[in-house]
Amino acid sequence: MTNHIALFEPLMPANTGNIARTCAGTNTELHLIKPLGFSTDDKYLKRAGLDYWEHVKITYHENLVEFIESIPDLEQLYLVSKFADHAYTDVDYSDQTKDHYFLFGKETTGLPQPLMQQYPDKCIRIPQNDEHIRALNLSNSAAIVIYEAVRQQSFPGLETTHLYENDKLK
């Protein structure tokens, strides 16, 4: 079982770098759907991901159709959008025999509406106060959703230390 975060046409290198860092920390695969709004050589992308890039499995997709076709079981696809009806916490991600794919939209426009209309039951949202903000930050949203998934899966393969002294459990 693997969790996957997919970014549809990401624009901001810092968000993608931060998400890559979260992927490294949660053993999550990262999918980047082109076109990207930056070069993968971008210094901000590298800075945000720090020295964790070697620990992230990244797959590039030429477009959204190619990404969708790469998913073996569309039942495990979740479209994350502030316009969805169901909260991300309402979904059961605990089945560790299946991969889970979380697709996030472009920072400025989100996911394409026709895609969301095609898979309305797969759309999930993070509740937020829309009176004060347009949307949560993309990298924060990815972290919130992936940590709910790994929490339901009992944090597979993740270290659970609480007190540190020189990077070792006290």
From TrEMBL:
GO terms for biological process: wobble position ribose methylation. It comes from the Bacteria. S-adenosyl-L-methionine binds at residues 80, 105, 126. SUPFAM superfamilies: alpha/beta knot. Signal peptide: none annotated. Residues 4-147 form the tRNA/rRNA methyltransferase SpoU type domain. One of its GO terms (cellular component) is cytoplasm. It holds the Pfam family SpoU_methylase. Transmembrane segments: none annotated. Its EC number is 2.1.1.207. Keywords: Cytoplasm, Methyltransferase, S-adenosyl-L-methionine, Transferase, tRNA processing. It is found in: Cytoplasm. GO terms for molecular function: identical protein binding; RNA binding; tRNA (5-carboxymethylaminomethyluridine(34)-2'-O)-methyltransferase activity; tRNA (cytidine(34)-2'-O)-methyltransferase activity. It is an enzyme of class 2 (transferase). Its main location: cytoplasm. It catalyses: cytidine(34) in tRNA + S-adenosyl-L-methionine = 2'-O-methylcytidine(34) in tRNA + S-adenosyl-L-homocysteine + H(+); 5-carboxymethylaminomethyluridine(34) in tRNA(Leu) + S-adenosyl-L-methionine = 5-carboxymethylaminomethyl-2'-O-methyluridine(34) in tRNA(Leu) + S-adenosyl-L-homocysteine + H(+). InterPro entries: Alpha/beta_knot_MTases, SpoU_MeTrfase, TrmL, tRNA_m1G_MTases_N. PANTHER family: TRNA (CYTIDINE(34)-2'-O)-METHYLTRANSFERASE (PTHR42971). Could methylate the ribose at the nucleotide 34 wobble position in tRNA. Belongs to the class IV-like SAM-binding methyltransferase superfamily. RNA methyltransferase TrmH family. TrmL subfamily. This is Putative tRNA (cytidine(34)-2'-O)-methyltransferase. The lineage of its organism: Bacteria, Bacillati, Bacillota, Bacilli, Lactobacillales. The gene is cspR.
